[in-house]
Design brief:
About 25% of the residues lie in helices and about 0% in strands. With about 140 residues, the protein is mostly helical.
Length: about 140
């Protein structure tokens, strides 16, 4: 197959829907292989089908609905929650028991001056090892 024949085959498959390969009607000839059938000149590509992977929206200007939901529902709720959380007093440390399975430190942390505070340690709420009272003895 020469380059021009291959070009016609490629044009044939990109212009029209694929067809089964053409059959030769001529008698077999070892020196001349069959040429592919060229499409007619009036063959035009059809409309491009929609991409199934691309999301389709039900209508135009749908984004306005979500914009209104954000500004009139979500934003006021966020502001109310912020006001509600700022109006409360912070938590205070309560009494704790120092059981052997709590606040275990096998090695020191690489931050802080003594290396016993965790990375997200809150001194107003969290206890350090040794600050809690020992548990009562379990004598039966």
């Amino acid at each position: 197959m020469g380059l021009t024949n291959l070009h016609n085959v490629v044009r044939h498959y990109t212009c029209c829907p694929p067809r089964p390969p053409p059959r030769c009607v001529c008698p077999p000839c070892p020196c001349m292989p069959c040429r592919p059938i060229c499409p007619p000149c009036d063959c035009r590509p059809g409309p491009i089908p929609p991409n199934p992977c691309c999301p389709r929206f039900p209508g135009k200007n749908v984004w306005k609905k979500y914009r209104n939901i954000f500004f009139f529902l979500c934003l006021p709720l966020i502001i109310l929650q912020a006001i509600h959380s700022l109006g409360h007093e912070p938590f205070h440390k309560c009494d704790c028991r120092d059981y052997e399975y709590m606040r275990r430190r096998t090695k020191r942390f690489p931050w802080g001056r003594k290396g016993i505070k965790t990375l997200f340690h809150n001194p107003c709420v969290n206890h350090l090892p040794g600050e809690c009272t020992p548990p009562p003895l379990d004598c039966d």
